[in-house]
Amino acid sequence: MTQNVPAYHLKKIQHYYGRSKVLDIKDLKIPKGSITGLVGPNGSGKSTLLKLLGFALEPTQGEIFYNGKKEYCFSPSIRSRVTLLTQTPYLLKRSVFENIIYGLKIRNDKKELKNRVKKALLGVGLEYDDFAHRKWHELSGGEAQRVAMAARLILKPEVLLLDEPIASVDTKSARQIRKASINAQKRWGTTLVIASHDLQWLYSVSDTQLSIFNGQIFTSGIENVIPGPFEKASEKIWKKGTGNGQSFFLKAPEKKSDNAVIKKKHISICVEKKPELSTKIPTGNSPTENILSGHVVSMLLEKKSSHIMTIVSVGDLSFTVRLVPDQVSSFGLHPGKEIYLMFSSDHINWI
Amino acid sequence: MDFIAVGFIKAIELLISGDHSTWSAVWATLKVSTCSMAASLLTGLPCGFLIGYYNFKGKKHLRTILDTMLSLPTVFIGLIVYAFITHRGPLGDFGLLFTLTGIGIGQTILAFPIIAAITASIIEGIDEDLKLTLVSLGAGKRNILVTCLWEVRYGILAAAVTAYGRVMTEVGISMMVGGNIKYYTRTITTAIALETSKGMFADGIALGLVLILIAFIVNLSLSVLRKQ
After folding, report:
1. Bridge-partner residues for A299, per DSSP?
2. Is the pLDDT of residue A36 over 80?
3. Which of A234 and A153 is assigned the larger pLDDT?
4. CB–CB of A339/A270 below 8 Å?
């Protein structure tokens, strides 16, 4: 029974900074031992969500259940089990060794510290003899991030929350951090929630991807958010230009909205433009089939499902389309190839 | 002008010969200022931390009061403490008037706002990532308090040095509450004031030199501590 209890269950969570709502999650479950990728632009609410999951921040409204039990900030039962690594971690003004054992010391766990620090440092690709006695200011940015990671891994956490951990580190450090986080999941069944702009990494390791925009979560994966501004084409129809002379149509918003979203599953593709496939300016209430021409810019393998995330650039916008490998080979897709995206105006929703 | 040079020479003689009245004032100063510093650190650090770390209603007003207390004149503190511990005052039964303990109470009141206000400012300026890091490593509220204070220890040392300097060099409290009783409550600063009023510049300069020497030793020790 407990196997089915998710690590996290967020219910009706809302969080405000002052009067501004930064997070609005109706219901979100994160399974135990899973790897969840979190994608969204800067300021979308990723860090706030991770702080809530790390119980470092109390939500303005709503409840967070951890392993089926409602938990709060600073709850002693949770403190030792969940840990968060930020993009710019703070190293305490002490040696690397002291930094790594800090979490153990406050848990009064002082057994075989040297050995454990050695293993933790090795886990992130750092040699004990070279690094353990260095001061916090004697490390590069990438080394500091790896030390911060080691300080969390030594705790063998139940949940490891990573907030853009490789955004400002060198390639070698990024590789070690990626490897160490996946090892934690494999060795101790740690639940990982990773916020990152590195889509390739997220698609290759995560069981599920969540996209977050303006504080709203899309549990169906990384979706195509279309940022404003939009133009009013008629009373019932609005229009969005792509910046390269093309445009597409959507229904007028029912309430004030600045952005729209179209799910991956609602976009289909073709490689040859047939004469009957052209965007018609809608006149009445019937939906319009939008057609846009774009170029494939990258293709990422979603490891768990073997689907291929194909990212297509259309002027200033980019769209992600989820394809099966057979489609990719039959269409002969490769980065640089021109393709046509088709989606109905009815499938574009305001957010 | 010769009296200044003569004063310096006599000062060195007094110190080397171990003049009883000079060393008694030095000892009284060290004892009372150290005790009042310990008391102000014990109370000022947690108060400063709480004010700096937490947001609560009335915080701004509290900061204003604390900042105003930074410029409390020592004679005013002396007056208030005198009024409380004099025989007719509410604490008169404790017999604290004209004692080192009485001076210590006044000096604690003098140092407390310096420690609390500077600590609060330092804590307010702490990197947000430090708090987040501590919470994410499993620190409880007590751990956060101790670790935050340890992380800003150099700033707090500077606050302590500032407060120590103010405590050691004040005259108003020691004179009014201590009464400048020779061999008992006479401190370096009250002795300097007395000797100067009597025209005994050499004794005054000797005590002044000791005061500067103590300040130098304190700062040197802190500098060594920082390097470690």
Report:
1. A310
2. yes
3. A153
4. yes
Q: Pick the residue with more confidence: A4 or A16?
A: A16
pTM, full prediction:
0.76
Condensed to tens digits (0 to 9), the pLDDT of residues A226-240 reads 887 888 877 778 888
Beta-carbon contacts of residue B161 (< 8 Å; ≥ 6 apart): B218, B219, B222
The mean pLDDT of chain A is 86
Chain-chain contact of B139 with A56 (C-beta, under 8 angstroms): no
> Over chain B, what is the mean pLDDT?
90
d(CA B15, CA A259): 81
Query: Is the CB of residue A164 less than 8 Å away from at least one CB of chain B?
Result: no
- In chain A, what residues touch B156 (CB-CB under 8 Å)? none
Q: Which residues contact A178 (CB under 8 A, 6 or more apart)?
A: A166, A201, A205
Q: List CB contacts (< 8 A) between B130 and chain A.
A: 90, 92
Task: Tally Cβ neighbours within 10 Å of residue B34.
Answer: 14
In this structure, are residues A13 and A29 in contact, taking their beta carbons and an 8 Å threshold?
A: no
Q: What does the pLDDT read at residue B81?
A: 96
Least confident range of A210-214, A217-221, B85-89 = A217-221
Residue A244: closest CA among A292, A281, A290 = A292
Cβ-defined contact of B133 to A90 (cutoff 8 Å): yes
Pairwise CA distance, residues A27 & A21, whole Å: 17
Lowest mean pLDDT among A5-14, A63-72, A232-241, B151-160: A232-241
Going by C-alpha positions, the residue among A287, A292, A276, A294 that lies closest to residue A240 is A292
Residue environment code for B191-203, b if the CB has 16+ CB neighbours within 10 A, otherwise e? bbbbbeeeebbbb
Q: Search chain B and give the residue with CA nearest A56.
A: B135
Q: How confident is the model at residue A1 (pLDDT cuts 50, 70, 90)?
A: very low
Residue matched to tokens 């009284």: B28
- Per-residue burial over A265-277, b = 16 or more CB atoms within 10 Å of its CB, e = otherwise: ebbebeeeeeeee
Provide the chain A residues 57-76 that lie in CB contact (below 8 A) with chain B: 73-74, 76
The per-residue pLDDT for A209 is 84
Alpha-carbon distance B21 to A302, whole Å?
Answer: 86
Whether residue A219 is predicted with pLDDT greater than 80 in this model: the reply is: no
> To the nearest whole angstrom, how far is the Cα of A83 from the nearest Cα of chain B?
5
Round to whole Å and give the CA distance between A117 and A132: 8
Tokens of A251: 């229904």
Position A274 scores a pLDDT of 63
CA distance A98 to A114: 11
Structure tokens at B72: 């409390």
Number of neighbouring beta carbons within 10 Å of residue B63:
17
- B-chain residues within 8 Å CB-CB of A103? 137-138
**Residue given tokens 């609560």 in the structure block:** B56
